[in-house]
Write a structure and sequence with these properties.
This protein is of the alpha+beta class and 251 residues long. Helix content is 76%, strand content 9%.
Amino acid sequence: MMEFNVSTFILEIINFLVLLWVLQRLFYKPLLKVIADRKQVIEQALTEAKNQQQQAEEKAALYENRQRQWEQEKQLALQAFQQQMDLERRVQLEKLQRELEQERQKAKVTLSVQQQEFQQRVEKQALENGARFSALLLQQAVGPELELRLFQLLLDKISGIPEVIKQPLMVPDESNSAPPIKVSSAYPLSPDMRQQVEQKLMTLINRQVDIQYHQSPELIAGVRLDIGAWVLNANVKHELIGFAELDYVSN
């Protein structure tokens, strides 16, 4: 049996205490420091993670809030656009209706004008046909008395020739002779009638004149006097035309 040795026991205790001191001095304190540093790093990482999580949650909330705002703005924009489109549609529709009404009014006015023009043409044609028919009837009823009355009417018109016609005949240009005077009649004028016309004209312009006589049956009855661009009428054809035109204008 092994004996208990006090000295050995004391040495073992001393060795154990030295080992504890060495371990505490060289191993335990650095280990605690490493553990503390590691704990600090972990706590800092956790704090940063919490901060990042909080920031992420704030950003998520901000994003959700912005998303809701964007949806609201989009709805408002769509409503405003729809209202603008409805307003523009009403404006364009009203404009189209006004243009259509204007076109209808123009078409109505155009149709009315065309109807009036057609009616006027019909009336004018009817008057012309009436004048021609009257001319045919008068051709059958023409007699010496009517011829004489129309001839006297022409003589009266000669007396009323305006100065603008008489002046070129009274003072002809030296390089050109005075224009001839053309006398047209439905029937040949008798020598006495010709003499009366010539005397009337010479008395009016105080000189000899060149008079050319022509027979124009289309006058129906009466005489026509052409002095350059001027015309004196005293015949049935002219009176019928004047009557038709006067009646047409008055209507």
